[in-house]
Specification:
- This protein is of the alpha+beta class.
- Helix content is 39%, strand content 27%.
- Strands 1, 2, 3, 4, 5, 6 and 7 form a 7-stranded antiparallel sheet that branches.
- A hairpin with a 3-residue loop joins strand 4 and strand 5.
- The longest helix has 25 residues.
- It has one domain.
Length: 204
């Protein structure tokens, strides 16, 4: 029987400088996990927020560079065309990883001291928020990105645990955005915001 490497190598685009070979059986197994098992739960959680989301139709999976075959599914929460949250679920035959990003824009009238409180909070010391200042965008003058990831090997937790982790991440990111839309970030409100954000982006 022809081995999978030799068979897959026949499909290589020889006009390119890089070739990636994936075991087709393992690729199909991982893609089925992402699309058939996890995507329906992800989509349901995104729809429950009331915000727009992407992808709307059948999601696509992507190859990830890793020490073992890893595929990922990326999804987003949107307010119109504005990205609120980006999530990525990565799976291999040995484990999974959920990566979360929250995009936070603050008006130029926001006190820099409140921005500094967010940046220096010890709950995010291992992966602090990233600050970019957009001088020509008064409503998003201070742009902060929160980022974090967590995962485990298969068998350590059941699927319900993973579903709940995904749902919680989506729900909390929607609540973070709601909070910013309804409140000005004064000293008291900053602490409330950070307490909520720490549930996804704080140290474990």
């Amino acid at each position: 029987m022809q081995n999978w490497i030799a068979k897959e190598s026949l499909n290589i685009d020889t006009t390119k400088d890089v070739a990636i070979l994936e075991n087709p059986k393992k690729k199909q197994y991982i893609d089925n996990l992402l699309i058939k098992k996890f995507w329906p739960k992800i989509k349901c959680s995104l729809k429950a927020t009331g915000y727009g989301y992407s992808p709307k139709n059948s999601p696509e999976t992507d190859f990830e560079f890793s020490f073992e075959l890893t595929r990922s599914l990326t999804f987003m929460m949107l307010d119109g065309i504005r990205a609120i949250f980006r999530g990525k679920l990565s799976c291999s035959v040995t484990g999974w990883m959920l990566h979360s990003e929250f995009f936070m824009g603050l008006h130029q009238n926001t006190s820099p001291f409140e921005v500094f409180k967010i940046l220096e909070d010890k709950r995010f010391s291992s992966n602090p928020p990233i600050l970019i200042i957009y001088k020509d965008m008064p409503f998003d003058y201070f742009h902060l990105t929160f980022e974090n990831g967590s995962g485990a090997g298969w068998g350590l937790y059941d699927y319900d645990y993973i579903y709940n982790r995904i749902s919680m991440a989506i729900d909390i990111n929607a609540r973070l955005y709601d909070f910013l839309m309804l409140n000005n970030l004064d000293e008291k409100r900053v602490e409330e915001f950070l307490l909520l954000a720490s549930r996804v982006y704080g140290e474990y």
